[in-house]
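Input record (one chain):
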Amino acid sequence: MTSETEKGALVDTEVTYDFEESEDENEEDLDEEHGHKRVHVVRSGKERAVQILLVVENFRLAFYIIFLSLLFLCMLLTTQLSGVEDYEEVILTVFGITNICTYMDWPPATYVLPSVWVLALLTIEAYLVVSVFRVWVAKEERKVTKLFLIGYTVAMVYIGISLALVATTFSVAPDLTDPVTVWVHVLPYTNLSCAMGALAVMVTWFGEAVAWRGLETFPGFSHINLLMTGVLVLMIPVKFVHHLYCLVNLQQRSCAELSTALKILLEVLNKIFIAAVVVWPTFQSAYLSYKREKTHCVYAILADNRKSRVTEDVK
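The corresponding structure, as predicted from the sequence alone:
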């Protein structure tokens, strides 16, 4: 049995930490002692804590990898195993052009889609949370304003909710004879397009302003970032208006009867949008992940509120 004295010791929560910091203020030397380890133990006298190096871009890269893998898996399952020859009919009728949803509305793709999406959701939500703390630290270091932090946080919350709501698209199959199902199916996807565009814009905005300052990159990296950001700023409203127009005029099949020239234009714009919102961000996050600790990382220190049983006082 545990004595009263031992119980008292266990619940003593007045534990403070004074972990050693590098005397050199150069950011490159902050974790030189530990060789840029992802996880290591830090000491403050008798107390111990675990310090974790989080390469923030790793979470975003994981999301894009899972997202693209999911897309290719659905494409394979729908084209090869669904047994549906006119799988493009619903999307063409609603929008006049095809999009990634073309391959996500039919079994057996619908059997695996929700479960795999959960994996993607976990990684991107982790990225959103860690990135907000990173901006918070930047605000405390006077690299960004309080207004920027508030705006960034609001944007990340919106993006996180939007990505979660995509599950509604997976659960409601579009039925052209029931317009409500089409609206419920399409709106979360439309919002997803806007949210992923907003994510790419916010990443580039903070990156160019703070996170990528002083980072050695290949020639043209910043120019491509700004170009893709400009494309998204222009394309997000176009994407939203196109989808909304098609839904409002669903019963008239207005988008299905668009001219060939307009359909070709929309197809080109859609491919440009995909390049800016998925392809380039995937490469961008992979490149920054390759840079590892040279990018703007975050340290997480995990410590408890109980006194240590270590007997020697080690600094």
